[in-house]
Amino acid sequence: MEQFYQVLAWVSIFFYWLIIAGVTMRVVFKRRVVGVSLAWLMIIYIIPIGGVFAYLLVGELNLGKKRAMRALEMFQPFADWFQRLNDCPGHQPQHMSHHARPISDLCENRLGIPALCGNSLSLQDSPHKILHSLIEDIHQAQDTIHLEFYIWHPGGLANEVASALIMAAKRGVTVKVMLDAAGSMRFFRSYWPRLMRHAGIEITEALAVTPLRMFLRRLDLRQHRKIVVIDNCIAYTGSMNLVDPEHFKTKAGVGQWIDVMVRVTGPTVAVLNCIQAWDWEVETGERYLPQLPACKLPSPADSSDMIQVIPSGPGMPDEIIHQVLLLSIYQAQKSIVITTPYFVPSENLLHALESAAERGVSVHIVIPDKNDSIMVEWASRSFFTELLTAGVNIHRFHGGLLHTKSVVIDNNHCLIGTVNLDMRSLWLNFEVTLAVDNPEFTQQLSWLQQEYINDSAHIALSEWEKRPVTNKLIEQFFYMFSPLL
After folding, report:
1. Residue 403 a catalytic site member
2. % of the chain at pLDDT higher than 90
3. Which one from 91, 176, 226, 395 is the annotated catalytic residue?
4. DSSP assignment of 204-247, as one string?
5. Which position among 95, 105, 125, 231 bears the catalytic label?
6. Quick count: other Cβ atoms within 10 Å of Cβ 11?
7. Of 146, 153, 224, 413, which one is the catalytic site residue?
8. How far apart are CA 155 and CA 26, in angstroms?
9. Is 398 an active-site residue?
10. pLDDT of 187-217, one tens digit each?
11. Is 226 a catalytic residue?
12. 146 is annotated as an active-site residue
């Protein structure tokens, strides 16, 4: 009997080694960023069985068989729709600035989406202003309202948005709402979905989280876009979820969330509507390609209002927003100002920021002083010494949880949208960013960033190096896992 148990033990060890070897080969052959592969290998080797189990659950970008098949079938119809935008008079590549042209070329070649001019942009810099503007536009809607958010949290002005949508549906407006299942869990457990569906509103729960699907689709893959399109004429996008900060995470100890949204009119609205239509079809199988924009030949004054819409996520070209961000940073000649709530940069992004500072570009990164994610906060700190040594300025914002995701290059070109500067946003989630080639709008965003900086504490390298040794050890521990955060 003793020999039987010995044989059983050796067979178990052999099969465990076989599993580890097989998963190791799979990690290596995926040819991802080296840091990501090393982080996963460390987890697999340090945590017996659990590491392998974790990798099989969340280690690879798996959209699920049904959604992947839908995306494959959708590709050509949507590609044809985007291709027809090249015939729009708003497509004026000859008027692009030297910053915008390389980004446009990259996006046209990889996404097939051209930049369009003739837009009107309004930067809305406070949650109350955003929500009141959105409610007013919903009340004026005539035909369609499409909303897509990561988080809808009931309470305050968010409830007024829901009431406005119900009133719109009752007067005959077609209303479609897509919300991420994990981010909007509180909403789906409230009474609002029942009331809204009763009024005729279509509500879709994106990427449902259930134990039965854990091996069919990556569970932490999230729909992180924030898009509102009204009558295919008005669009909103930016960093803000559909929440009233006075009623959202009030006990988290980080203060109220600080966000911005961009209100857009013009041909770019239809592009954002098409991105939302893509997400709707991936989730439901229902197709409703929007009408192409009714483009008019823009005046010389409007030809500078160029917007490049850049979606990313499963089904889109890999790391497209990451590429755009790197391209923007390497093009910078005078200044780079970045605001982000979650700063865990890739190796390439870290080197790009350091190189910019070392060649004399003024680089400023503004992050919250307190973060709602402890892991991200410690991992973020692990990069400070290297960045400060290179001459990057780091500011810790004290006015709440700074959730604005923005990049301003040389005060004349900017990126604004839903993307955090971490691997999750840049590699995994469904995101959208606007590359805006509009000096006036960029200047407004730059002024807002300066307000954030004025309400921040600047980190000095000499003071930062005096932090306790225990802090340094914690930072290094979370740094090892930073490629996975």
Report:
1. yes
2. 57
3. 226
4. EEET---GGGTTTS-TT--B---EEEETTTEEEEES--B--GGG
5. 231
6. 10
7. 224
8. 46
9. no
10. 999 999 999 999 999 999 988 766 555 555 5
11. yes
12. no
Q: Tell me the pLDDT tens digit for each residue of 113-155.
A: 999 998 999 999 989 999 999 999 999 999 999 999 999 999 9
Whether 318 is a known active-site residue: answer no
Q: Which amino acid is at 309?
A: V
What's at 84, amino acid-wise? R
Provide the CB-side half-sphere exposure for 155 (13 A, CA): 13
- Residue 337's nearest CA partner among 437, 436, 460, 452 is 452
* Strand-pair partners of 265: 120, 234
Which residue out of 405, 413, 422, 437 is catalytically annotated? 405
Q: Which of 153, 395, 403, 413 is catalytic?
A: 403
pTM of the full predicted structure?
0.88
Q: What is the secondary structure of 31-63 as a DSSP string? A: ---HHHHHHHHHHHHHSTTHHHHHHHHHSS---
Please tell me which residue in 279, 410, 422, 437 is annotated as part of the active site: 410
10 Å CB burial of residue 331 (0-12, 13-18, 19+) is: middle
Residues in contact with 299: Cβ distance below 8 Å, sequence separation at least 6, in sequence order: none
Among this protein's residues, is 139 annotated catalytic?
A: no
- Three-class SS of residue 307? strand
Helix (H, G, I), strand (E, B) or coil at 342: coil
Q: If phi over 0 gives left and psi between -120 and 50 gives alpha, with beta otherwise, what is residue 452?
A: alpha
- Rounded alpha-carbon distances, angstroms, from residue 58 to 78, 378, 417: 29, 22, 25
**Separation of alpha carbons 95 and 303, rounded Å:** 7
